[in-house]
Design a protein that fits this description.
alpha+beta, eight-stranded antiparallel barrel, 9 strands
């Protein structure tokens, strides 16, 4: 999905193998969050709607179980990537045909990324050539998309943490990649980059936000793009990007 799919081009961050054990602990926490987030959303869905059928619920739970423990794909092996793709296709095949002028309201809201095949590619460009993730020294935090269908705004929000010497606290920032979006037709979404805003968190929270009219070099390859919404209901979304990326989101 790359309608400005920065999120569709986020990397694989598992080059620090010496920290694998501690990272896996956080992965389990992330997986639990994913399952809790889905369960709450599914419980709020109208049981009489097609999107809340028992089949769809079972397929969504199956997909989440496949990606659980992969930390959004960061630790995904080739077999994991294939399993996630197959589980996604089963859910896509069970869903209704998507027409975004008709189904546009379902995109509204804040969505959290629970899986991206781009993380397993090892670079920021997904299946296209891009800067290697291993060259980027930050730890990836939560990744969100915030979509406003009325104003046609599409923001990719990513939190980062930079390590510091003990006993200093880590430096945390939130990057918001602001886009507008267009609907070329069918289930496609085109995103157009506007600007990047950087806001400090934690010990940096008192600093004013910084707006960058030009995307940083390491993110520039993912500034704008086109993706297809391949599954969509009130709480769950699957997208496939123009770089071959699969991404799975749950609504907050």
């Amino acid at each position: 999905m790359t309608t400005v799919a920065f999120i569709h081009s986020l990397p694989r961050w598992h080059h620090h193998r010496s920290h694998l054990s501690s990272r896996r602990k956080s992965n389990k926490h992330t997986a639990r969050e994913n399952l809790i987030c889905f369960s709450a959303a599914a419980a709020a869905t109208d049981v009489n709607s097609p999107s809340s059928s028992l089949e769809a619920k079972a397929l969504k739970a199956d997909l989440l179980s496949v990606v659980a423990g992969l930390d959004r794909g960061i630790f995904a092996s080739d077999d994991d990537v294939e399993a996630a793709d197959l589980a996604s296709k089963r859910l896509e095949d069970a869903g209704d045909k998507i027409d975004l002028p008709r189904d546009l309201d379902k995109l509204q809201g804040k969505w959290r990324l629970v899986y991206s095949s781009a993380f397993a590619s090892g670079n920021l460009g997904g299946s296209r050539p891009g800067p290697r993730a291993a060259r980027f020294p930050l730890t990836l935090g939560p990744v969100y998309q915030r979509i406003d269908v009325l104003s046609r705004e599409f923001d990719n929000i990513v939190e980062f943490r930079a390590p510091t010497p003990w006993p200093l606290p880590p430096l945390e920032t939130r990057a918001t990649l602001a886009h507008t979006f267009e609907l070329p037709g069918g289930a496609s979404v085109k995103i157009i980059f506007d600007k990047t805003s950087i806001k400090g968190l934690g010990v940096l929270s008192e600093l004013p936000p910084l707006d960058l009219p030009r995307l940083p070099d390491f993110l520039r390859s993912s500034s704008s793009g086109l993706f297809t919404v391949s599954y969509l209901d009130d709480d769950f979304r699957i997208t496939r990007g123009d770089r071959g990326e699969l991404r799975v989101f749950v609504k907050l």
